[in-house]
Amino acid sequence: MSLANDSVLWALMAYALAIATSGLLLRYFPALQRLLSHPGQSRYASVDGLRGYLAFGVFVHHMAIIWVFLHTGVFDVPKSKFYAQIGLASVALFFMITGFLFWGRL
Q1: Which of 25, 33, 37, 54 has CB atoms 3.0–4.6 Å from 90's, for a disulfide?
Q2: DSSP 5
Q3: Radius of gyration of the chain (CA)
């Protein structure tokens, strides 16, 4: 697999960099970990984590659109099916998860 403009490896590297940066920040700045913890509240930690990955997927999609704009001068969806769909799928799943979370509060 090469690092062509539409390669999935760019997104994987961005995810790896974001996860590593988050891990280092939480490890070396304990105040951040205390600030982000929610003791005594009923939360779905795994769902919160999934929402974070999905939000980052939307970010990757927007960066791909900006990359296309910078190279063509036109705001358009990337030709790569992966980069075109990562944002759409992330938003759809994000709304489904939000519906699940709000359903429990009704």
Answers
A1: 54
A2: T
A3: 17
